[in-house]
Amino acid sequence: MKKFFLHLIIILSLFTLSAKAQNKISVVDLKCEMLTNPEGIDVLQPRLSWKIKANVNDVKQTHFQILASSTLEKLNAGNADLWDSGKVQSDESVNVIYNGKKLKDRQDVYWKAIISTNKGEVKSAEPAHFSIGILTYADWKSTRWIGYEKTSPGDSISQYSRLSARYLRKEIDLKKKVKNAKVYIMGMGLYELYINGNKIGDQVLAPVPTDYTKNLKYNVFDVTSQLKEGKNALGTILGNGRFFTMRQDYKPYKIKTFGYPKMALQLFVEYTDGSKDVIRTDDTWKITTDGPILSNNEYDGEEYDARKEMKGWNTINFDDKKWLSAEYVQEPGGFYEGQMSANMKIKREVKPISIKQTPKGTYILDMGQNMVGWLQLKVKGNAGEKITMKFAESLQPDGSLYIANLRDAKTTDIYTLKGEGDEVWEPRFIFHGFRFVEISGFKTKPSIENFVGKVVYDDIATTGTFDSSNPIMNQIFKNAWWGISGNYKGMPIDCPQRNERQPWLGDRTTGAYGESFLFDNQTLYAKWLDDIKNAQTIDGGIPDVAPAFWRYYGDNVTWPGTYITVADMLYQQFGDKKVIQKQYPSMKKWMDYMEENYLVDDIMTKDKYGDWCVPPESLELIRSKDPARLTDGELISSAFFYQLLNTMKKFAVIANAERDIAHYEDLASRIKKAFNAKYFNTSKNNYANNTVTANLLPLTFGMVPEELQQKVFENLVHEVEVTKNGHVSTGVIGTQFLMRTLTNFGRGDLAFKLASNKTYPSWGYMVENGATTIWELWNGNTADPAMNSQNHVMLLGDLLIWYYENMAGIKSNPETPGFKQIIMKPDFNAGLTYVNASYESIYGLIKSDWKKDKKALVWNFTIPENTSAIVYLPTTDISAISINKMKLDKTSYSYKAKNNQVVVTLSSGNYSINVK
To answer: Which pLDDT tens digit goes with each residue over 52-97?
Structure first.
């Protein structure tokens, strides 16, 4: 008997060990300020985050310990000389604030996380790193700005500005062996940096744009491996970017300019013997404007003469006797900041699908996709021959380029051959929005193999996928991806092709929220909120465009209100409290400004754009002329301001400004009362002239008395379903709330009809008429096309949010922001028969893959580790539900019946649910 029990104990022990071996848990994706191993951050108490990966269900973090060291060697030896948090009882794995020794300028930090879970302890798979930047203006003081503040032959200070690139170089002599080296660079407007002939980094169009009179971003690179003992060569090329703006000496009352390109750089070198050295920009650097980049202008294109190439200009022993000494120049004026968002990068390549000759002997290249970036050219010919490439989004009926919608943007690249065999070229300092390219200069017909499209946008991850049973909806999703990515240019811009390309606030009021499901856009939008804050006037006004490259300070609610709605998105989607705490004073200042200047009898009287881009009654019209389609501007601004007040109540708590709450509540109550008194029609149970937007806004914002909500909604439905025959009739404002409100009030089927329509006006109508991105106008193919950008995102409204939250069932619980708890509540009866979607949240990958027929619903989904989900199942019959092939019962799962549904709370893991 004893032997039997001994064997049993051994068997059980082996089984337990085997089970433990199978429970693979790891700590991955360590981030600092949501950046991976960032260099040169300007935060002394950065937030640290990590993800937990496991192959078993129900994994929860119970404790964490963070170890931070000044060197990797110390970290590996267990010497946490900067911070040992100790074992902290907490399930926090996102935005844990560094609380170790005070960090200094240029401090390196190596760190890792050791966590305990309910399944065991584990440490980070790999250590992470970040470094502190140059935190004070005084530390830059001895570094001088250098440049060349003149024009050269061929340059032009005019409406069509031309300015050749600046090439700078300096040779240095490092007398000792290098242990560590970092370079800090501000190259305005754009730069490329080289050491010993090698480009540093894979970024393009760097740094990100700002209002350079307010702040300038510097980039930091570890260049230890690029330097050697002895002679080294530093080289930079400065392009124009938004610094030397696209239009000079033209509409100075509107377009802000900043001066000629210039640079400040510091190279910090630490030698193996412990000594240090600093190389700075000064007048010993050499400069020339007589290089191959003759002009670079974001609107007009880049011109390059390969015959003027200077072989070896960025290597040692280059003869620069004909170069000038760099001049000391005036600094731009803005404060210096470490860049905390990604630079742009070539993210993918597109191969053309066809090339056709035109009657005039040129060729039309078709990329098959409206894209943003540039074209790489491969050519062979004689010295002096020119290849000209002109870019556009569409063609005229005769097959030639349609360029009227580009306005005065020339969108043309010119390459002059050097005549030395096969030549490969692509521009450095511009981008185009295009599908078609007119090419001239080839002596024989070129092949599509001569060209490669380079897709350029911010180096941020695609986080979302979506596929469904409806092909139109799937194509709309693809079009949205291409449009959004193409308009990420260090800031969100409205369009990438014509002479605009501006960061309009109103385009992203709700759009940023939808975009956050497709892209990891947290740092991009956090940076943009700084741009908005920096654009605020002393008295509180916020412009419609920020950074304020265009001076559009017109005052209204719906465009500047984006400042608040984007901050709310960052909190809801990413759990970012810090951004609200940082921006709250400026937000409050703007709210006070609008109240003091434009609130009359508790109605917000200031509106500028109305419900912009309402679908016109005629396919030929650009703007509707029918008063019955247009919504009262003061109704829009009052309802929107009411909603912003409610958001500011939430922000006041987060920002420890509870004293403001009473004022927000009182003002909101007064506006609601005045709004209903002025706009509600008691005999017809609708608002104002009964447009969809007029009824939609008060319904969505909770301004309609509860007992009247259903009647108002019925009027709204009648307008959509009957009057507009099941089509969109809202503009930029109404469309931000249309899809979710229809679904939340029980008409997901009507929302589905709007999403899947193929006829005008609809997103599907764009698809049916050849769109591969999202148009600026609902009727962009028939209204004056000169007024239509074919790559805009503002008309997406809340469509993408609806895709994820209402169709896929991937929504962050507002009570636990950042997807700490997920609400999984798809509308299974809207009209789709399957959805397969995923979203990489800050905690990990969320998947939702469901398919239904008349017999059953099969739903497979993934909940990230250290999170949970509230799952809604469309039945009240408990016996019809199985989870992971086991019948639902209370011994295994927590659930309750609610509103004809069964609601189950699940912890992390992979699940397969079957509902008969």
So the answer is: 999 999 999 999 999 999 999 999 999 999 999 999 999 999 999 9
Q: Residue 531: which of 796, 215, 251, 59 has the closest Cα?
A: 215
268: phi > 0 → left, psi -120 to 50 → alpha, else beta; which? beta
Is 393 among the residues known to form the active site? no
546, 528 in Cβ contact below 8 A? yes
Question: Can you tell me which residue has the tokens 């900041």?
Answer: 337
Rounded distance, CA 817 to CA 843, Å?
Answer: 11
First to last CA, the chain: 49
Name the helix (H) or strand (E) containing 186.
strand 178-188
Round to whole Å and give the CA distance between 176 and 278. Answer: 13
500 is catalytic: yes
Q: 434: which DSSP letter?
A: E
SS3 state at 113:
strand
Residue whose structure tokens are 């919608």 = 405
Chain mean position to CA 794: 14
**Average pLDDT score over residue span 102-107:** 95
Q: Measured between alpha carbons, how far is 873 from 911 in angstroms, rounded to an integer?
A: 13
**CA–CA gap between residue 784 and residue 761 (Å, rounded):** 16
CB neighbours of residue 483 within 10 Å:
28
Kindly give the pairing relationship between strand 821-824 and strand 857-873. Answer: parallel
Distances (CA, A) of 553 to 546, 547, 776: 10, 12, 23
Neighbour-count burial for 696-711, b at 16+ CB within 10 Å, e otherwise: bbbbbbebbeeebbee
Instruction: Give the active site residue among 270, 327, 500, 714.
Output: 500
Report the C-alpha gap between 777 and 789 in whole angstroms: 8
Q: Which of the following is catalytic: 776, 805, 840, 865?
A: 776
